[in-house]
Amino acid sequence: MVSIMSKSFLLVFSFVMLALVFGLTSAAEPKAQDPYLWLEDIDGEKALSWVRTANQETDKSLTNNPLYKSIYADVLSALDNKDKLPEVNIIGDMVYTLKKDVDHPRGLYQRTTIADFKAGKARWQPVLDIDEMSKNDDVKWVFHGMDCLKPQYQRCLVYLSPGGGDAHEMREFDAKALTFVDKGFALPAAKMQVSWMDPDHLFVATDFGGGSKTESGYARKIKIWARGTPLSKAKHVFEVPEKSVSVTATRYTSANQAIDLFVDVPSFWTRSYHQMVDGEIVDLALPETAIISDVVAGKYVVSLKDDWAFNGTQYKQGSVLLIPPKALTTSVVAVPVDGVVLLIESSESAIVEDVSVAKNSIIVTVLEDVKSKIYRYTNGAKGWQSNLIDLPESGQISIASISHASGEFFARYEGFITPPTLYAVGESLTPKLILQQSATFDSRGLKVEQFFVKSLDGTRVPYFVVMNRETKLDGKNPTHIFAYGGFRASLTPAYSGSYEDLNGAYGKAWLERGGVYVIANIRGGAEYGPAWHAAALLDKRHKAFEDFEAVAEDLFRRKITSAKHLGIEGRSNGGLLVGATMVRRPELYGAIVCGVPLLDMKRYNKLLAGASWMAEYGNPDTDDWSFIKQYSPYQNLKDGQEYPPILFFTSTRDDRVHPGHARKMAAKMKAAGHQVEYYENVEGGHKGSATSEQTAKRVALSFMHLWTHLQ
Q1: Contact 196/188 with Cβ under 8 angstroms?
Q2: C-alpha distances in angstroms, 569 versus 18, 451, 523, 710?
Q3: What average pLDDT score do residues 671-694 get?
Q4: Is the pLDDT confidence value at 6 over 60?
Q5: Which residues contact 287 (CB under 8 A, 6 or more apart)?
Q6: Is the pLDDT of residue 67 over 70?
Q7: Which end of the chain is more exposed for a tag (fewer CB within 10 A), N or C?
Q8: pLDDT value at position 15?
Q9: Residue 507's closest CA among 24, 53, 77?
Q10: How far apart are CA 643 and CA 654, in angstroms?
Q11: d(CA 546, CA 370)
Q12: DSSP for 647-710?
């Protein structure tokens, strides 16, 4: 669900759930209860006719304007900047990247050697031309990545999505011959989870037919598929209940042993881990909120999201542990004192954001008051020791890619007004600057400040403000707040402020034109660890809205802006955020941008992947509705109430958050006479766009909407 999975995502999401569901309506709920239920029929002609009309009205309202054309050109220029820092992926001794430009709007997947890339002499070799494949197959493919089998990295699995949704097709690829493998492994489009066991076997979780999916629409069965055999003959090895969210399987190889791990995901925030031991699947004795991220030196790397008493020791929430598998697979725990290693503990202001394994070392990203630092842990005579990597401060640092063979990694640094920069970090731990892209907007005269405000319950909430040093504090500055507030996704300083990789497009469209930009680090995210997220879960969801509203009011107190000049934006869960605070406090805002949103919280669990998020929001079919109904935007629109002008955007091919949410809310508000713009792209999945041109239109529409109403 998290729209951050580049952080986009995170981001996190990091979290990408897998399986294709197009369930539309509940037979138990009469259509008469909702006059706009027909808009949930994704490809229904009546619904699509409404979409086409709404798109035409928006084009007429926003695009026939010199300002729109100027913003669109600026955004497209930033997106297609020739020296844009590439998103790199180390596979073996090669660096791979997907290049998008005018000639390749869908992308050219290409590679060069690590040595040439580091030396600034990259000789890019084409690997896959996604535009050519789209033309030949008559399918609008969106590249979803390539997974290659270690340690040879020759046999790979390529994922291609028709239209950009979460569902994708899988094909086996030979990275040496640069061709798809004739009669190799291949699967039709689905929200699948596939991983290598060995050169001739895969773990496969996909849509196997009747009974193979959870109620959330994700795969619930794991099978081992042998090369040269039909999928129907794959060996069933593990399954989870239909009420679980999904299932995954991974083989880890460490300390000369193979560890096969199976994961039942009962809810979005819980895991049940199981390991294959001597041919039998054994439960691991871990708390349900713990996360295994990898294996190093034969031990599981475990992140704790709650306090845990284990083997006579109390471990704190936010800690990272190294645990021998035997300590978790035996009924009687008898592990030496040094068998379980406490690698790092989080503190009140410094929390562990991410943990990655590089050969026999561990790379830990830490957030200190929402600013990043990276530590490398290595095991020596004195045990595991840490070293701080000397990278720039006061910005966002992320691990771009890791060489599992050498332990070297690429780190990406960027700030609100600092273009993305790529560093290589090797054994010496001294970062070497590899690439820094040129600026795509004029940041001269801009400043970045971090403020803190007390929310309604006294919680101290941080937020960043980017504005010109000469900005007059007269309450009249057009100001744009972006926030998310959910699913443990942290919003950290990113170039020009966007949490997706827009390469400074916000700077061109907003900051360069005199706007003030704000990122609000409200509860529900992970800026201060698991507790910051848990503080806005379920019946505490309103805390995220209160935090957001406190930031808005603090901007007024500081006379940075006022309600008339304040615009807000959120996407996905952030779309729910801005929709909810709109119906709660409409007087605070002058304009709203609501992207790929959840809005009908009475039915969200019946639409596409919605059931998988009930651990975040609650189940509206139970007593949980008593607190969900207090904020559900669709149900809380009031007759006679004035609301700020709003722009909704979504995608027909979003198979994560149903486009019906945005469609129905827009239709309901239009019918009540409110000022509504609506844009639905025909492809793009949950990101809302698949090409630079589509992204440029979406961003230009958003900022045209804001500039129109906030001056």
Answers
A1: no
A2: 27, 19, 16, 13
A3: 91
A4: no
A5: 304, 306, 308
A6: yes
A7: C
A8: 33
A9: 77
A10: 27
A11: 20
A12: EEEEETT-SSS-THHHHHHHHHHHHTT--EEEEEESS-GGGT-SSHHHHHHHHHHHHHHHHHHH
Could you tell me what percent of the chain has a pLDDT over 90?
A: 84
The answer to whether the beta carbons of residues 658 and 598 sit under 8 Å apart is no
Identity of the amino acid at 58: T
Largest CA distance in the chain: 73
**Measured CA angle at 112 (ends 107, 113), to 5 deg:** 155
Return the bridge partners of 173, or none: 156, 180
The Cα 461–Cα 523 span in angstroms is: 8
HSE (side-chain half, CA atoms, 13 Å) at 643: 29
Q: How many helices (H) and strands (E) in the chain?
A: 14, 39
Task: Classify strands 246-254 and 257-267 as parallel, antiparallel or unpaired.
Answer: antiparallel
Specify the pairing of strand 383-388 against strand 186-190.
Answer: unpaired
d(CA 192, CA 711): 47
Confidence of residue 57 (pLDDT cuts 50, 70, 90): very high
Lookup: tokens for 280: 């039998």
| Predicted confidence (pLDDT) at residue 2 exceeds the cutoff of 60 | no
The count of other CB atoms within 10 Å of the CB of residue 392 is 14
By 3-state DSSP, what share of the chain in percent is helix, strand and coil, each rounded to 5?
25, 35, 40
**Taking the C-alpha atoms of 135, 137, 138 and 140 in order, what is their torsion angle to the nearest 10 degrees?**
-80
Residue 677: Cβ within 10 Å count: 24
Nearest of 441, 501, 431, 491 to residue 468 by alpha carbon? 441
Cβ within 8 Å of residue 615, ≥6 positions away? 267, 268, 269, 270, 537
Query: What end-to-end distance do the CA atoms of the chain give, in Å?
Result: 34
- State pTM to two decimals: 0.88
| Per-residue pLDDT at 134 | 96
Q: What's residue 333's pLDDT?
A: 55
Strand order in the sheet with 409-414: 396-402, 409-414, 421-425, 432-436
Determine contact, residues 97/89, Cβ cutoff 8 Å: yes
Work out the percent of the chain whose per-residue pLDDT is above 70. Answer: 94
Euclidean distance between CA atoms 207 and 194, whole angstroms:
12
Taken in order 540, 544, 547, 548, is the CA torsion positive or negative?
A: negative
Radius of gyration of the chain (CA): 25
Instruction: Flag whether pLDDT at 246 surpasses 90.
Output: yes
Active-site residues: which are they?
572, 686
CA 682 to each of CA 59, 142, 162: distance values in angstroms, whole numbers, following the listed order: 15, 13, 12
CA 245 to chain centre: 18
Adjacent-strand bridge partners of 324: none
Which pLDDT does position 11 carry in this prediction? 34
- Which residue in this structure is represented by tokens 């469209």? 509
Rounded-to-10 torsion of CA 555, 560, 561, 567:
-70
For residue 381, what are the CA distances in angstroms to 322, 378, 384? 17, 10, 8
Bridge partners, residue 264, by sequence: 247, 272
Q: Is the pLDDT of residue 400 over 70?
A: yes
Task: Looking at 266-377, list the stretches that DSSP marks H as alpha helix, in order from N- to C-terminal side.
Answer: 325-329
Q: Which residues contact 497 (CB under 8 A, 6 or more apart)?
A: 416, 466, 482, 506, 507, 511, 517, 519
Section 209-221 average pLDDT: 93
Tokens of 467: 């504005």
Among 510, 500, 494, which residue's Cα sits nearest to residue 415? 494
Instruction: Report strand pairing: 350-358 vs 341-344.
Output: unpaired
Judged against a pLDDT cut of 70, whether residue 338 lies above it is answered with no
Angstrom distance (rounded) from CA 264 to CA 248: 7
Please choose, from the candidates 143, 139, 138, the residue with its C-alpha nearest in 3D space to the C-alpha of residue 110: 143
Give residue 241's Cα distance to chain centre.
Answer: 26
CA distance 471 to 478: 11
Looking at residue 106, its amino acid is R
